[in-house]
Design goal:
Elements lengths: L1 H23 L14 H23 L11
């Protein structure tokens, strides 16, 4: 449960970065973001968004390896 919550928060953070990309390339009118964002910075925002979404997906798909104590 906590694993899904954490991945959801990371995913939403990536979506927020996507908003920066959309503002830089004027794909959406985002009045909440008051500063101007240049296109090169918009590309960095897109890269950050992709990395956050990929991290969330990888985190959800990762299987935990259970460590077993070996008796010698």
């Amino acid at each position: 449960m906590l694993r899904v919550f954490f991945a959801g928060v990371v995913f939403l953070h990536g979506i927020i970065h996507l908003m920066g990309f959309m503002k830089a390339f004027r794909l959406a009118d985002l009045s909440q973001l008051r500063q101007d964002i240049t296109r090169p910075l918009g590309v960095l925002w897109l890269l950050a968004a992709i990395l956050f979404v990929a991290a969330a997906g990888t985190f959800l798909l990762k299987r935990e390896k259970k460590l077993r104590a070996r008796c010698v």
